[in-house]
Amino acid sequence: MRNFFVLIVAIILFSVMAAAQDPGLRDSLIFGNLDNSPIIIGSGQEAAVPVWIKYDDSILFIHLPMATDDDYIESRNGGESFVSIECWEEQVFLPPDTNSPQAGYTSQGLMTWNDWNDLACPPPTYIWVHVIDFWVTASSDTAALGEITYAIEGYSPRNGDVIFGLPDGVSEFEPRIRNGPLRLYLSGDVNESHDVNGLDVTYLVNYLKGTGPPPEILISGDVNGSCGMNGIDIVYLVNYLRQDCSAPVYGECQ
Ligand SMILES: [Ca+2]
Ligand SMILES: [Ca+2]
Ligand SMILES: [Ca+2]
Fold this sequence. Notes:
Shape: elongated
Bound molecules: calcium ion
Strand content: 25-35%
Distance between the termini: 62 Å
Mean pLDDT: 90
Low-confidence stretches: 12-18
Order of helices and strands: HEEEEEEEEEEEEEHH
Structural class: alpha+beta
Oligomer: single chain
Largest sheet: 8 strands, mixed
Radius of gyration: 23 Å
């Protein structure tokens, strides 16, 4: 009986290995920032979620779905691929798949490949390569503020999950994947109470005077979108609260 189980385990292991042939070093993929810091996204704003890969094999095609929680991300808007994947000649951003890979999540994906008769992408020297940005738009619901959410491996009912395909046209494998943290914020809400009021002015004044802590999300104090924080932001915020005009904005400060 024991030998029977050993045999079954051996068969399962062999099957798993045969379906995941990855010559040489184990390859990796990151959704999000390389340093694992959260991607900070303004409430209701569009942002880029980078995808990085590290591999040592010749790869003929890649299917690359990423999923995000609908409570935090309200739309997926395709993306941009970079020079680093020009060797895969065909690149298609796929339409989003709702409730995938689980209820309440939506996947967006990229399919990229080389023509069968051409050479596959040559192996880079096992370094991180920024291959694409996925564009997402954050929810403007205040319930989504402050919490960490993750960009995770997605799933397409047509094409499956993340796949790297080898030049023999048969072998494919899934890289090791790291999920990326995302965090939403409200411009002007420097004390993270999820609204903007006089307490935020006090907080910002104390910080700029050097008598209080910085906003946990520093950029939330840049209410005029200048990509810096100073007294002008305080004046802007006070004017907004007094006159209900010129609401805090979001700078493009990469
Ligand atoms: Ca490899
Ligand atoms: Ca506040
Ligand atoms: Ca500013």
